[in-house]
């Protein structure tokens, strides 16, 4: 594996599958909007809190554990440009995705997960991986596993997810839970994780409900795909990557200009679970953004780097990943 190889993560592949034009703007032109969607800010902050909970559960009293987890939540929250001490207007606009709700959730989370936290062996926290794509030369599927644990003789990937998909009985909407069984990231992480941890066969999606008043709804969604299903995922992923590479080749061959049929817009994906696409204003006003000499107002140039974001550099330099 070398720095010049092709490294592809779920973020890049999903962007192309979602909308080739969105992929082009983010990963070819390297444009992104200034700011991060609130669901992503809360989710990444919750991840930071989970790192503290799973790492220090056995060596910290619960009050200190919660204090440390909330400190990690606050640090990530403020890193994304939000104030930890929200004013009345922000509280109204952001609820339930606010730090106060997160703290209430943490108390219930530790109680709900007590037996697993107590009984598991933690093998890895935020461990990067890079695994080959068999039919693509010098191409690697990369990612970062939230947690890998050994529990009751099984090696399991834990992936933390937050959602506001609530139903009135106090639980999760069934469509949200069932959706993980066909999720591309889960399949890719099972494939990648199994090559790093022999015998690993399961991914547990650690779903946490974010709600104004319900703070104790958590659900593990255990997923174990068979080998034929993972083989299908590999073949399908490689087909998408080949299509992506064809678009990039045509774009470069045309002198870094969009031509008919290259990086097409998928106008059915302009609005999704996180609201409108961050590039919608560009697509509404600019038929060919490749002719612009700089990103429009409200956007900056920031290259997506799995080396920095996922820690792939650790693998290249031979550092331990567990």
What's the helix and strand layout?
Elements: E1 6-9, H1 10-18, H2 20-28, E2 31-33, H3 38-56, H4 62-79, H5 88-94, H6 99-112, H7 114-119, E3 121-132, E4 139-151, E5 154-163, H8 174-179, H9 184-196, E6 202-209, E7 218-223, H10 227-253, E8 271-272, E9 275-276, H11 280-285, E10 299-301, H12 306-309, H13 313-316
Parallel strand pairs: 1-4, 5-6
Antiparallel strand pairs: 2-10, 3-4, 4-5, 6-7, 8-9
Helix pairs in contact: 1-2, 3-4, 3-6, 4-6, 9-10
- Main sheet overview: 6 strands, mixed
Helix content: 40-55%
Mean pLDDT: 93
Determine the N-to-C terminus distance: 19 Å
Secondary-structure-based class equals alpha+beta
Radius of gyration: 21 Å
Total beta strands: 10
* Overall morphology: globular
Helix and strand sequence:
EHHEHHHHHEEEHHEEHEEHEHH
H/I helix tally: 13
Low-confidence stretches: none
Strand content: 15-25%
Summarize the structure.
The protein is α+β, with helices and mostly antiparallel strands and 322 residues long. The chain has 13 helices and 10 strands.
Description:
This protein is α+β, with helices and mostly antiparallel strands and 322 residues long. It is 44% helix and 20% strand. It contains 13 helices and 10 strands. The two termini are 19 Å apart.
